[in-house]
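Bug report (template v2)

What were you trying to do?
Predict the complex of my protein with 4'-deoxy-4'-aminopyridoxal-5'-phosphate.

What happened?
Run completed; filing so the output is reviewed.

Input:
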Amino acid sequence: RNTLDVERVRADFPILHQEIYGKPLAYLDNAASSQKPRPVINAMTEAMESYYANVHRGVHRLSQVSTDHYEGARETIARFINAPKSDEVIFTRGATEAINLVASSYGRAFLKPGQEVLITELEHHANIVPWQMLRDQLGIKLRVAPVDDDGTLRAEAVTELIGENTGLVAIAHISNALGTIVPLQEITAAAHAKGVPVLVDGCQAPPHQKVDVQALGVDFYAFSGHKMYGPTGIGVLWGRWDLLKKMPPYQGGGEMIYSVTFEKSTFKEPPHGFEAGTPAIVEAIGLGAAVDWLSGHDLDAVAAHEHKLLAYATERLSAIEGLNIIGRAEPKAAIVSFTMDQAHPHDIGTIVDRAGVAVRAGHHCAQPLMERYGLSATVRASFGIYNTEQEVDQLADALQVVKELFG
Ligand code: PMP
């Protein structure tokens, strides 16, 4: 235990075995999106080749098989995050839609004008903009807990802002821009002591560490399939049953109703009452396969492997003169955000691309966080289960070239 056979992992990913400009691909953009292992590709192909049909409505055989696979994926995901029941797992387009669902449904039904939604400086735009839209529609307020200079989010920075007016805490599990891991348990305990529910933007956690929604004690947990080795177009909102059950519908349409007349419609219970229209059937099945594949590895070993990569990358990049790492929180996920004194992040990204290294350059959909550090952009290397120390070397060597070019 606590080791991971990275070569065997890599063998599952067809896309990794290629050259970019004649150099081996080093894919270090996992926080934006991850690559797909063969079992995910196969599961989706098999669905389309052998049993695809619309779900829940057909009496015919293919529809039944399709429905079984779609609902089976829900159960797999529920077990993966230790949800008390699979009916608490709602399929969405991704984390963005999951957060919008809570803002529209829970927010409009249960937040009152003047109440506050408490977020933090390190949120992704997906956990800022829906609350701003709600603010402008409902007259709620946004409060923002600060991060420290080194990227740490202290629990007290959040908990001291929870007061009588707080209606909801909406907070990331792991910062996609800096890697900061948020002390969720402490924050949730303090929020619940004041009767305030907690929504977590989980996006960056499930592919990298064990997520147990019951142990975290949170009320809503949102994440995307494509960052956890699954397909795009599918994500999850997990919510506590008692909350989901009292929430009004999000979108209206087919699949989510019991009966419709021109006068009145009646709605299904969760999860189907929140899944209007034909869902992303093949993608849900693909996400189920990704979870099965990920569950085949010891997630503690995955976390240990990525932590080693983080330590090594931090050491190698710190040795480059004029390179500044932004965010050195402890604990931190395997994300290294940095700037270089002479070169713009986009130039750095372009130059390392020529060396086969895929990194992100930009604001990482976290413009307020960039502004907090007086920046408009950083370069971000983000690691996943299949990355290696050689790839860190490939990045560091390419950055040395940047330094020489611009130095
Ligand atoms: N939150 C965080 C922390 C993220 O990293 C992302 C994706 N970059 C999102 C939300 C949005 O996810 P999606 O675009 O898949 O809906």
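What did the reviewer find?
Residues 52 and 66 are 6 Å apart (CA to CA). The longest helix spans residues 61-80.
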